Amino acid sequence: MQSVEVEIFGRRFRLRSDDPLRTKRVADEINRQIGELTENYDNLDFTKLLLLICLQQQEQVLLLSDKNIELSSDLERMNQMISMIIPEV
């Protein structure tokens, strides 16, 4: 693990990471999202902004998980159809 320093909403954080570049990218994305939120909710403090981002991210995770399940099911059906069309060798 390596130490990496990131800045989010003007605050510096020292983190440990196996992939410092990825950690910086994640922090940059969080910082970008906080910037967008502050345009709409300039009265919220740092903690509430982070909570909103967490809720948005979790919603995205759930949507992507549902989509992944749907695509896996579609792929399984297609594989079954292909196996009926093309006999196994």
Q: Return the average pLDDT rounded to an integer.
A: 93
Low-confidence segments, given as residue ranges, are none
Counted beta strands: 2
- Total number of helical segments? 2
User: Roughly what fraction of the amino acids lie in strands?
Assistant: 15-25%
> What can be said about the biggest beta sheet?
2 strands, antiparallel
- Number of domains in the coordinates? 1
Question: What layout of secondary structure does this protein have?
Answer:
Layout lengths: L1 E7 L2 E7 L2 H21 L5 H40 L4
Antiparallel strand pairs: 1-2
Helix pairs in contact: 1-2
Structural overview:
- The chain has 89 residues and is of the alpha+beta class.
- The protein has one domain.
- Helices cover 69% and strands 16% of the residues.
- It is built from two helices and two strands.
- The protein has helices at 20-40, 46-85, and strands at residues 2-8, 11-17.
- A two-stranded antiparallel sheet has the order 1-2.
- α1 packs across α2 (46-85).
- It is elongated.
- The mean pLDDT is 93.
Question: What are the salient characteristics of this protein?
Answer:
alpha+beta; 2 helices; single chain; 89 residues; elongated; 69% helix; two-stranded antiparallel sheet
Give the structure's gist in a few sentences.
This protein is of the alpha+beta class.
